[in-house]
Design a protein that fits this description.
- The structure holds two protein chains of two kinds.
- Chain A is an alpha/beta fold.
- Chain A has four domains: 178 residues, 3-Layer(aba) Sandwich (Rossmann fold), CATH 3.40.50; 119 residues, no CATH class; 66 residues, no CATH class; 183 residues, 3-Layer(aba) Sandwich (Rossmann fold).
- Chain A contains 23 helices and 18 strands.
- In chain A, strands 15-14-13-16-17-18 form a six-stranded mixed beta sheet, with helices on both faces. Chain A has a five-stranded parallel beta sheet with strand order 2-5-8-1-9.
- In chain A, a hairpin with a 2-residue loop joins strand 14 and strand 15.
- The longest helix of chain A is centred in the C-terminal third of the chain and has 21 residues.
- Chain A starts with 6 loop residues before the first helix and ends with a helix.
- Chain B is of the alpha/beta class.
- Chain B has two domains: 160 residues, Rossmann fold; 85 residues, Helicase, Ruva Protein, domain 3, CATH 1.10.8.
- Chain B contains 15 helices and eleven strands.
- In chain B, the strands form four sheets. Chain B has a five-stranded parallel beta sheet with strand order 4-7-10-1-11, with helices on both faces. A two-stranded antiparallel ribbon of chain B has the order 2-3. In chain B, strands 5-6 form a two-stranded antiparallel ribbon.
- In chain B, helix 1 packs across helix 13, helix 11 crosses helix 13 and helix 12 packs across helix 15.
- Chain B is globular and about 70 Å long.
- Chain B starts with 13 loop residues before the first helix and ends in an 8-residue tail after the last helix.
- Classes of the chains: A alpha/beta, B alpha/beta.
- At the A-B interface, helix 3, helix 6, strand 6, helix 9 and helix 10 of A face helix 4, helix 5 and helix 9 of B.
């Protein structure tokens, strides 16, 4: 504790904490592939018992390899089913390194997460039912940039988090690789009730609503004390554990140190006192309140930011509007990434995969030959053996905003629409969705922002958006539908978002004629309905009348009134639609 | 095997606990869906359920947990045994079966026995998870990540109570009545609305926000981690009391009366909330009965209906994208209006 902790020293400490034992789930490592990461992994291996398994998998490792199943070759040779333990079970007792963890699919994350939770892995697949012990610690190597991160289901189950991205190699290479610490005494460390209370409070304060965080903190504090050779958990153990568990920045306020010092001297030097004493003295002199404040401080200090743990507030906003399955992934796709095998055709004219089908047929040959007395040398394949490759294709959504920028719409409306697009873009960026903007004013509509995921580009294009003039609603619709069709051709799903009061006064041919304009708009709306373009009409009139509602009905669009449409409301509404499977 | 974390030692999460207890008392409630924050003890609670459930009698040697009392829903083996009178019974714990992610259809419904096929070249049926879960619970963690066709299949069997297997030249029918328990986190993907309302009860869980609760969670968890066996022992008295409450509730359930008053209240509530179909109303009264049975009462009261209303109805409301309040609040609002104003109002 006499040296100022750095991300690198914390990372090495985390490796040792993991080695000391105590079930900590594992370490979430934010780092790019490179020498620093390799060096750290070397440290990790050195601090572990070399006889224990150390396995490396990647996010692309198929789910069936994770849980295990039937070893077809061995089964055929032996003439009896031979099971094959999955990689999770093979890592039992040791370390499983998951590289490119930010690419892990929700299902893989669910499987690994369940194994981390229970210490066993269940497999029910292709004729074999297995239950293997799989107690391992996961090292998730997260190379995500910006908002990309490992699935929250995994992050929540990893006790420690470190960040190597800012560690220079020249600095890291000077650390000596240490020998393994003694293993296992963490559970024998005492921890006072007051300390547990402080831990619970501190984890809440750190913004970690998940109860797991508090549990990790308890275990990490125990491990810290064990590493220290202490008999009981003391405040500085918890403080250090907090850095590792919450991945908080480096600085530790000076007060913490001095408080400990003065406290230590008051109760005579801790290391000189008999074994059990110091903890009690510590807890007695420090009331829980002070203890709590002391622990919380490092995190609430400005300039020190909490990374890693998923924050609560932001997540809860969802759900209100979302309906249906996430919709972002299309399972029955004809293209995309192969995602396992299936016994039923994923789409009507799918062709079976020959190798997979033969594999499925292999175990039954003996039985079938006997049944039908088929000659040797011919493979008996039945319809039930057919296996198809299932592709998974990430469907991107594109929200097409069709915005009324005419004189009838106040300038503030335009501002709100711009704001909504920007907000939505920021949000879309996370999911790799895109946004396009069509504005109609004057005699015809213009595509202001072509479908884009670039926030910067959209912002730049939007700033130049002028307002005023008559209202060519029909033209706006036409451009919107055209874009929607375009988006569809690119195998993405469009969502039309109209911000209008439903009153156009310029016909498609550019004549200012209210009657013709209405007729054209109606025709186009019907067209959109037949094309089955999912649409949302946001009525931005100050006093909503029937015009917009009728238009929405004709289009089969959802109708929402937002007489005071503000950017946040519009963006929230559209984001809800894009997340849901409604389009 | 280490002792599981005791059910009674789970801090807070009263709605989830009572939903699970109600489904233990009345397996016909249609299952429970637990959705919400991570690290709230969803799986812990479900995995602790075996400790609360009474034993059941089955026919010895039956691979489907057949109930000797039920005449018509026996599997083929047991029906034959029953005729000859050779059926012996034994008592077994109520099964709580895990359906892991990545499970394939053949293992869920059952398929050709691989061992027999390979070794003896014999065609025999090997029951799957559905057979194992008969008369018990089938638990799917991360139900929202399960393949759609599997979820469809499960809900179908759960509703009909019979598993029909027609594959690989086999034709097997066996009873499969189980309580489906699903849990998940909505951020990883929502459940299709069609599936949502096929679960009888639905619970939203949130991480405890109250410091006292959180402190208690940390303390109990730490005590459990240090010595699971001792922890289980310390809680065994409370666990035992809860177990006998469930047992008494199960015994009492058939005799719990549902007065007209409670029935009308349930109907009015469903009408007010615009819940489609009869399913909501049925589940609401059934759940209220289970609650009354669990509390040791002989008749359902309005208070029972009101208490279970959010759990039984929240996932059956039509979504309103502009109503930020969410369905729980809407149910509560309707309850407040019904209780405060004129009960049995005509709704809107």
């Amino acid at each position: 504790m006499n040296e100022q902790p750095t991300p690198w020293s914390d990372a090495c400490l985390a490796a040792r904490v993991l080695a000391v034992g105590g079930d900590l789930g594992g370490i979430h490592v934010r780092a790019r592939a490179g020498p620093v990461l390799d060096l750290w992994l070397e440290h990790l291996r050195a601090s572990l018992d070399p006889s224990l398994p150390y396995l490396r998998i990647s996010a692309a490792t198929p789910e069936s390899r994770l849980v295990g199943g039937l070893d077809v070759a061995a089964s055929l040779q032996r003439g009896a089913p031979v099971g094959d333990a999955g990689l999770l079970a093979k890592a039992h007792g040791g370390i499983l390194v998951l590289s490119m963890a930010e690419r892990t699919t929700p299902t893989s994350a669910g499987i690994i997460g369940a194994a981390l939770d229970r210490g066993i892995v269940l497999s029910e697949g292709h004729g074999v039912s297995r239950r293997d012990v799989a107690r391992f610690q996961l090292i998730a190597l997260d190379e995500g940039v910006d908002d990309e991160a490992i699935p929250p289901a995994l992050a929540d189950r990893l006790g420690l988090r470190i960040d190597l991205s800012a560690v220079p190699y020249s600095y890291a290479k000077h650390t000596n690789i240490e020998t393994p610490p003694a293993r296992g005494p963490a559970s024998r460390v005492e921890i006072s009730e007051a300390m547990l209370d402080a831990i619970a409070a501190a984890s809440l304060q750190a913004g970690a609503t998940s109860m797991r965080a508090a549990i990790w903190l308890t275990r990490a504090a125990r491990a810290m004390a064990a590493l220290d050779g202490a008999q009981s958990v003391e405040a500085h153990h918890v403080a250090t554990a907090m850095r590792l568990v919450f991945g908080a920045g480096v600085t530790q306020p000076v007060e913490t140190e001095s408080a400990e010092e003065s406290d230590g001297s008051a109760a005579s030097r801790p290391d000189e006192a008999p074994a059990a004493e110091p903890a009690d003295a510590d807890a007695a002199t420090l009331d829980p309140e002070t203890l709590r404040d002391m622990l919380i401080e490092p995190i609430s200090t400005p300039g020190v930011h909490v990374t890693g743990l998923p924050q609560a507030g932001a997540e809860r906003v969802r759900g209100a509007a979302a309906a249906g399955k996430s919709g972002a992934i299309r399972d029955k796709s004809r293209r995309g990434r192969p995602a396992g095998l299936t016994a039923r055709p994923p789409f009507p004219e799918a062709r079976p995969n020959v190798v997979a089908t033969l594999r499925a047929a292999a175990p039954w040959q003996k039985l079938r030959r006997r049944e039908r007395a088929e000659p040797l040398g011919r493979v008996a394949v039945r319809k039930s053996d057919f296996r198809y490759i299932r592709y998974r294709h990430q469907v991107r959504s594109t929200a097409i905003f069709v915005v009324d920028a005419s004189g009838s719409t106040a300038v503030e409306r335009l501002g709100e629409a711009k704001g909504a697009v920007e907000l939505l873009l920021a949000d879309c960026y996370v999911r790799r969705d895109s946004v396009a903007v069509v504005a109609f004013r004057g005699l015809e509509a213009d595509v202001i922002v072509e479908p884009t995921r670039s926030l910067v580009r959209a912002k730049r294009l939007l700033t130049g958006l002028p307002g005023g003039g008559p209202t060519p609603l029909a033209s706006g619709l036409a451009k919107g539908i055209e874009l929607a069709a375009h988006v569809r051709r690119a195998a993405q799903s469009p969502l039309l978002v109209l911000l209008t009061d439903g009153n156009g006064n310029v016909a498609l041919d550019g004549n200012v004629d209210r009657q013709a304009a209405r007729h054209d708009a109606e025709v186009l709306a019907r067209h959109a309905a037949t094309l089955n373009v999912p649409a949302l009409l946001i009525d931005i009139a100050r006093r909503p009348r029937d015009a917009a509602r009728d238009l929405a009905t004709t289009m089969h669009a959802d109708y929402q009134q937002l007489p005071r449409a503000d950017a946040v409301a519009v963006s929230g509404l559209v984001a809800g639609y894009m997340r849901s499977g409604q389009h | 095997m280490t002792a599981p974390f005791p059910f009674s030692a789970i801090v807070g999460q009263d709605e989830m606990k009572s939903a699970l207890l109600m489904s233990a008392v009345d397996p016909n409630l249609g299952g429970v869906l637990v959705f919400g924050d991570r690290g709230t003890g969803k799986s812990t609670a479900v995995r602790a359920m075996p400790g609360l459930l009474p034993k059941i009698t089955t026919i010895k040697g039956c691979r489907y947990n057949c109930d000797p009392q039920s005449g018509e829903t026996l599997c083929a083996d047991c029906a034959a045994l029953n005729k000859t009178g050779a059926a012996k019974t034994r008592s077994v714990p109520i099964p709580v079966v895990d359906l892991p992610l990545g499970a394939t259809e053949d293992r869920v419904v059952g398929a050709l026995d691989l061992e027999k096929a390979l070794v003896a070249g014999e065609k025999a049926f090997e029951p799957g998870l559905l057979a194992r879960a008969h008369r018990g619970f089938l638990y799917i963690d991360e139900v929202n990540l399960l393949e759609d066709h599997l979820v469809d299949l499960l809900l179908d069997v759960a509703a009909s109570g019979v598993n029909v297997v027609e594959r690989e030249g086999l034709s097997v029918r066996h009873p499969a009545r189980f309580v489906l328990i699903g849990s998940g986190n909505p951020e990883e993907g929502e459940l299709r609305p069609q599936l949502l309302d096929r679960f009888g009860l639905s619970v939203e869980v949130r991480s405890p926000q109250d410091l006292k609760d959180r402190v208690e969670v940390v303390r109990r968890r730490d005590a459990y981690d240090s010595d699971p066996a001792a922890f289980a022992k310390a809680w065994s008295a409370r666990e035992g009391r809860l177990r006998s409450r469930v047992k008494r509730g199960r015994d009492r359930l058939p005799d719990v009366a549902t007065p007209d008053d409670a029935m009308e209240f349930a109907a009015a509530l469903c009408l007010k909330l615009g819940v489609d179909g009869l399913r909501g109303e049925l589940t609401l009264t059934r759940a209220a009965r289970a609650r009354a049975a669990l509390a040791g009462r002989d008749a359902v009261s309005r208070a029972d209906v009101a208490a279970v209303a959010p759990t039984a109805l929240r996932h059956r409301l039509r979504r309103d994208p502009l109503d930020e309040a969410g369905s729980t609040v809407r149910v509560e609002r309707a309850l407040a209006e019904l209780c405060g104003g004129s009960p049995g109002g005509s709704g809107e």
